[in-house]
Amino acid sequence: MAYLYRTILHKDLQNVFSPPPTNNADKTDFETNYKSQATMVGDIVIAQTTFMSELSYASFKAKVVSPLGWVDVKYLDGIQRYVLNLLTENPL
Known about the structure:
- By secondary structure, this protein is α/β, with parallel strands linked by helices.
- The chain has one domain.
- It has helices at 23-34, 57-63; strands spanning 2-10, 39-40, 50-54, 73-77, 81-88.
- It has a five-stranded mixed beta sheet.
- It is globular, with a radius of gyration of 13 Å.
- It starts with a strand and ends with a strand.
């Protein structure tokens, strides 16, 4: 079993219905402090045996603690959003 933790940060809020009020601050925090450490990927394929949790950015960030680090975060860099993913073998 694998555990995938995911959060979405919107780059452009123009077409987003009810975005989180902290989105702009969260996006800036990711771009400024962690994006250079994380790994950009082109796609994420999720196995049937993966348990996935959608989290707020604050909750996601709280899961990125030792022994995991931002180098373990894989993100998709889309036109309108970042999709941050953290995959582990054990639940956090």
